[in-house]
Amino acid sequence: PRMTKPRIFLPRLVAAMEGVEETYIMIKPDGVQRGLVGEIISRFEKKGFLLKGLKLFQCPKELAEEHYKDLKDKSFYPKLIGYITSGPVVCMAWEGVGVVASARKLIGATNPLQAEPGTIRGDLAVQTGRNVVHGSDSPENGHREIALWFKESELCQWVPAQAPWLME
Ligand code: ADP
């Protein structure tokens, strides 16, 4: 698995590398079917995180099972695997300082009825079993999930033109 630290190349941004993380964000099949792809990507883009990987992908059962292996004893696990493999998902790798926890805040609580207005789930969903988006829950899982869903060649290391306007 790919365990190298995410890198930003501009020397003057080296100081900003402190706390740089990467997180795996996935628009689940309901988000794709409901035409929410642009809306959801837009929220991370506008916030100022760096998009490193992006693809539309039909997830095989084995990959869904590996991704959700910590939940395999839960009663909803078979339904969850069926849900995630029911249609294409949008896989994304995002990088930034504190991106893991911040993305979880943007996404909102697991149960969309408890998610705050302004969050993705709070604004766009009503049920835990159809909660439109996934976000890694720790920096370690961010690395693990990006390595699981992406090949190294599918990830771009780049510096957006707006970088100096996002971080001093
Ligand atoms: P999160 O996605 O917010 O990190 P969990 O890791 O607890 O939440 O669960 C993973 C996913 O499993 C949830 O996003 C949801 O799609 C599904 N899930 C969790 N709990 C339930 C449940 N009680 N019923 C149906 N699906 C569930």
Automatic annotation (TrEMBL):
Swiss-Prot/TrEMBL catalytic activity: a ribonucleoside 5'-diphosphate + ATP = a ribonucleoside 5'-triphosphate + ADP; a 2'-deoxyribonucleoside 5'-diphosphate + ATP = a 2'-deoxyribonucleoside 5'-triphosphate + ADP
Origin superkingdom: Eukaryota
Top enzyme category: transferase
EC number: 2.7.4.6
Domain Nucleoside diphosphate kinase-like: 20-157
Requisite cofactors: Mg(2+)
Gene Ontology molecular-function annotations: ATP binding; nucleoside diphosphate kinase activity
Alphabetic keyword roster: ATP-binding, Kinase, Nucleotide-binding, Transferase
Binding-site residues, ATP: 28, 76, 104, 110, 121, 131
GO biological process: CTP biosynthetic process; GTP biosynthetic process; UTP biosynthetic process
Active site: 134 (pros-phosphohistidine intermediate)
Similarity annotation: Belongs to the NDK family.
Name assigned to this protein: Nucleoside diphosphate kinase
Taxonomic classification: Eukaryota, Viridiplantae, Streptophyta, Embryophyta, Tracheophyta
